[in-house]
Amino acid sequence: MKCTYACNSAEHEVSRRQFLAGSASAALGAMGFSGMVTPAAAKQLEKSQKRVLLIWLAGGVSQLETWDPKPGTPTGGPFQAIPTSVPGVHISELLPHTAKQMHRMALIRGINTRENNHAKGAIIMHTGRPEDPRTNYPHLGSAMAKLLGPEDSPLPGYIHVTPRGAAGFNKKDAGFLGPKYASITLADGKPPENLLRPKELSVQSDLKRNQLREKLNRRFGQRRRTADTEIYTQSYEQALQLMARHRIFDNTHESPKYLDLYGRHDFGQHCLLARRMLEAGVTFVKVTHSNYDTHHENFNFHIEQMGEFDKTFATLLDDLADRGMLDSTLVIVMSEFGRTPRINQRFGRDHWGTAWSIALAGCGIKGGAVAGKTNAHGTAVVDRQVNGGHLFHTYFRALGLNSKRNYYINQQPIPMADPKAEAIEEILA
Amino acid sequence: MTMRLWFLPCMLLVSVSTLRAQSLHERIDQMIESTPGFGNIAAPMSSDAEFLRRVYLDLTGSIPPFEVAQQFLADKSPNKRQTLIDRLLRSPEYARRMQQFFDVMLMERRPTKRVPEADFQEYLRQSFADNKPWDQLVREILSADGDDPKLRPASRFMLDRDAEPNQLTRDISRLFLGMNLHCAQCHDHPVVRSYKQEDYYGIYAFLSRTFIFTDKKRKNLAVLAEKAEGDVTFVSVFDPTKTQKTTMPRMPGLPPIKVPNFKKGEEYQVKPAKGVRPVPKFSWRAQLAKEITSPENVRFRRNIANRLWQMMMGRGLVDPVDFDHPDNPPSHPDLLALLADEFASHRYDIRWFVRELALTRTYQRSSMLSAGATEVPPDRFAVANLKPLSPEQLAQSMMEATGSTANIRRALGSKLTEQALYARLKPAIAQFVRTFGAQPGEPEGDDFEVTIDQTLFITNGPLIRSWLKPSGENLLARLEKVEDAKQIAAILFLSIFTRQPSDEETKDVADYLRGRTDRTQALQEIAWALLASNEFRFNH
User: What is the Cα–Cα distance from A307 to A95, expressed in whole angstroms?
Assistant: First the structure.
């Protein structure tokens, strides 16, 4: 599962990024408006470009019904633990397909974020730190769009597929990195807003009107300062290129075999869409599976939700591996927190940031590794306790990035990951 | 010796009085144009068309209507620019434009929390319509506690920032003093030597005793209240000895305010009790408005002079506008000092000040580099700087250009007022603000950035497409009736670019239309190309 990067040095990253940026812009120039065909060389680069898939189990999945079962205890609930493809590692029986993927995965069972509020927990998990009113830290997706994304790619670097909610462009997610790295939400898996050319406008007419626009711009640009106008002109080139690639947002171009394998429910189709977009070169895709906030009927609900998750997730890992993408794609399965070991009177579990788990797979991850341990009833972490900061360092390192570097915002150094934490070395390949 | 000493002040008197006789705009031009080599790089004066578009955008927030452009370009009177400036400054659209500019500056697109956004905007609009002096406006905004219904809208500045003293300290120092003290909260600014942690806490102290009181007896109305106790202490995170420092309320670089001493138990006019809003005998917060606008606080007038200069000239004399400090001096230090002092001595008369800026040659220069001048630094103000349109300017200009606004004017008929028209334009403006505006709490327009959703909005979005459908007397409806390509080009360019097309451009239009049977479609494509062009996106 090891990534195929040469080393972790900053110089290496720079030269790699310049290489990508250079070739991407050359490709852009050569393609002009036609922009339909990706040259083979660029295709090759896209394969090795590192990417991230975040599967967000919104509301807080139960660690006890997934990665850290405690069968036969007062807190364990009704489900058993089953063996996995890695001897000695057991997970919930609700995940039989996922169990067969364990040799590709790592589990972190010692998370303590000390946060039981949905919004605040989500901030910790997305930015690697507790909320800080003084600094708008970027989401992992925006950070990766900046650090891993090819400089001149027409594709958005951070795309979020959600079953409900409004489509949109979320500048807030990018924090101090700026709107260039904002996320785009695809509501219900539909393409970005305004991506598709209006029906009454032919490709030919669109081309012609854009040629006229360019001609006007050239004339206006003569003897004028062009720093800002160039940014504006380029945005139209990017828009046209993205429009030309609208098929990456459309699962109907997939064979029925994949539609079935991934599952013909929202989550399955959204994961398939995520794979399409990652394959096309999008750096970071987040897929939301909703909603795990099981204050009532935790167990029935997890049977249902895990039933959707399990097969789709296993299919996804197989598919990424088959396509040679798993080595370069870090897969993260997480929530804003876990759920209480205590089972409440409504057979529910409540919010729990004290001792819970996440799962990782793919790029830079040591298959079968487990870090951290909770006590017999799952009420506390007893070994290798970590927080959002450790997780951030771990993601960076898994992707071949030095997590101890700084961003420079107004000449001010801001550490990319919480300097008080470190990577969880034992699960890194 | 005696003689010379006598002579010197006399000379000074003479020169000062000659300067006094000159209007501010003449002095501005002298100072800008007297920099070395200015003549070699200066652009010529703008054409009438260039000036018309620019001044309309800056003073009314939109490009001019087609008929206005026609009339102005045909007008032969030598004073027509000044006449136009004066007319626009008296128009209701000027108050609207200033409302939009200052609302974005002061509230930074924050959503309504406790005080409706629309109330604050109306308060601002009325203030600019009345030409309320800047210092008075700021005093109202910083002293409104939300209790007095008349000034309730002004209290949005504090109430919708949750009256959080750190947030307010950061924003007040940035917006009213031109000091970005963000980094000075935890330590002296690491890069800006003159921004001290004690400056931060001096401002913070005015607000440190303030909190939001929810009045149960008045339908949970949120108002500001203040305690009579609590001192401000701070420690630098870089200080190994962790020495605790303390400060009383004060403006950066000025002495602390004088605070009367009360005996213990006698500090309150209204004592704190359950469900009662306490009122101290001496309010620290109430001193803020007075101290910040005091004549000793030079930063206050420098900041606003610089920000209005930026609004008109596309770049502050101090740039960025919130980093006024000795290591980042103004491009023209004497000019900024002059502007600040003159603005203050004219009782912070905003309309007068903006008029003086608009009358300068500096403002009225072309944005085209003169032949031979290749690199002209933007801080020389020798060539007009390009200014990206604000979301509001872009929306209003697109609706004006496409004749969508003209249709609404016609529909309103005798009920046409600026306010009635604006109410009809507002939903579309809101869409542009959502797409092109900055994040809540972030300054807007510091750096020109374009995001993909914005360009897709213009390229494929239904709103702009709807404006390009022939309807009533809008642009497309008018163009549809015209056969002659030359005439079509003339209408298109004057409506959208506020200028006549060149021969080459007329030919482009004719070529585009030639052989097209779907003529309306072709006209829409041309109009779109103009709307999506750089020439439209910027105030040039």
Answer: 8
